[in-house]
Amino acid sequence: xxxxxxxxxxxxxxxxxxxxxxxxxxxxxxxxxxxxxxxxxxxxxxxxxxxxxxxxxxxxxxxxxxxxxxxxxxxxxxxxxxxxxxxxxxxxxxxxxxxxxxxxxxxxxxxxxxxxxxxxxxxxxxxxxxxxxxxxxxxxxxxxxxxxxxxxxxxxxxxxxxxxxxxxxxxxxxxxxxxxxxxxxxxxxxxxxxxxxxxxxxxxxxxxxxxxxxxxxxxxxxxxxxxxxxxxxxxxxxxxxxxxxxxxxxxxxxxxxxxxxxxxxxxxxxxxxxxxxxx
Length: 279
Description:
Elements: H1 2-25, H2 27-51, H3 58-75, H4 78-103, H5 110-125, H6 127-135, H7 151-174, E1 178-180, E2 184-188, H8 189-209, H9 211-214, H10 222-250, H11 265-278
Antiparallel strand pairs: 1-2
Helix pairs in contact: 2-3, 2-5, 2-6, 2-10, 3-4, 3-5, 3-6, 4-5, 6-11, 7-8, 7-10, 7-11, 8-10, 10-11
């Protein structure tokens, strides 16, 4: 366990500064990095599906996920992106249906193949588009590099990871009662509550000390920040449980191995994927 914790801390020590640098740069740097994460996350969902005996269409899911993120950067606003996103998803659904009709036999599970293909796109691809929108939020002129444009995205990422860390250490120190043992045997009620407290406290501190400096054009009370932090922490925990369910069905411990001590992109970012939707 101590070796695993050491690996987690080492990866975090390298990854967090790099991530903040990409967020600070924004623009094409963030778009490309978010697209890469979307592709890795989508492939991990496809891997879980294959491990569970399904045969998703990776050649449909991977381009669709990448296009959703790149379209967010190209469109610039959510209003302009939404029709493009709907078109991409509809084309992916239609392509999956056609591929099932002409490339698969009935006994090869066409419905699970279509379902897992679309799940990979919506679960791991689409949320990274919201990272682009948060970085370029219209509350200020935030398209240029600089801290003035990063508060919302940094807020979502930091609050989620603070809640995750608080849940991890709180569960290890105080965990007694199982939360949902049928879904995730190791998660405890005490760990979940610690995570909510950590996310709420972290959000309140960010609103109190960083919002006045970085949050140009935004207004939020400390109490409101604490409530939003608790909601983000709750969304992240639901996402974590959802991934645990998928991994249990697939019979794997981690979604991938790209991040030593953390597992895959989904293992590290699954809470963020859900909190980005909420933010």
